[in-house]
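agent: user wants the structure for Chromate transporter from Saccharibacillus kuerlensis. delegating to structure tool.
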Amino acid sequence: MDIEPDRVSGAESEKTDRSGNRMLEVLAVSFKLGLTSFGGPVAHLGYFREEYVKKRKWLDERSYAELVALCQFLPGPASSQVGIGIGMVRAGLGGGLLAWIGFTLPSIVLMIAFAFFLRAFDIGGSSWIHGLKIAAVAIVAQAVLGMGRSLAPDRARAAIAVLSACGVLLLQTAFSQIAVIAAAAIIGILLYRNKEAEQTPLELPIPISRKFAALCLALFFSLLILLPVLRFALPSDSLTLFDGFYRSGALVFGGGHVVLPLLEREVVPSGLVSAADFLAGYGAVQAVPGPLFTFASYLGAVAGGFQGALIATAAIFLPAFLLIAGTLPFWESLRRSPHVRGALSGVNAAVVGILLAALYDPVWTSAVRSSADFALAAILFLLLVFWKLPPWLVVAVGAAGGWLLGLL
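agent: tool returned. relaying tokens verbatim.
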């Protein structure tokens, strides 16, 4: 009988050690991916599959497909959410946090450094910085083309996309994008609720209770509602910054490039970031590994220094944590709902339209100012779409091209 407590203690110690080892393993693997994952969200998902599914076998193909489907459904940075979800599968909530830190930290450091470099040397008007803005034209145009093919493949969804673009461009208010997404969701339910359901994937082994998941979802919606109220009741630069970036992270469907118009509306009209610095940073973020949402780190640094960078980074990624932890335990039943599938079809089409609007304003209007600018944008689009060069290389070519145009 005296041996039993020691046995229990030993088992608990072994379990703790195993959990600690798993978390360190998650951090190490995700950090390696954060240093090497160039190419944007779609490429990230390929890197994840190779590392987590094929090489390490932390989850099987069906489970990985389940997780990717969930993160495509949720607003926020899809590739980051997949990484967080895999970390949670492997090592619980701590594993999810370390997976995010490892994958995101290299990009955060590079983007904050670029922001301070931009401010210290006053290079905002440099010709090579203008080349970065032109590269952003090609990159966003590629995103519109690729997403349009997959998310708006028929006449009805193409119409939703174009009407969404018109709505966002003509009704430039703080709530126009939310209204467009809501309207698209309703139309999607009406048109696509009877769409044939896909085969339900296997359930993911997530060590999160439904009660805790419900608390995460409650916190997500509470912050979404209360932060704007607190922002006006208790005026503060930090609170204003946190509210703007939290709302952007919470309401962007499609991730990556689609966050561009949301962030632009938060920081450019208010004067926190100039239009020139905004596009320069957007071009630069294409050349670094990791998630495109670290563009927020750059914007926060430009607007409020190192403290602003920390606030913006935490705010834009917090919804991703709350949503992935809050929905994983409920995802299997959600996917069976025809109304959810229909709403998602409409929202995805609207995402294409919102990005199309962003391609015109602010990307095109701020970057293409002459026939030479258009020629460089066309060449970069050719390299990106038809020659299949990686985005970071196209960005480098764009910076060099802008420098050469400045010599003419």
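agent: one observation worth passing along. The chain has 16 helices and no strands.
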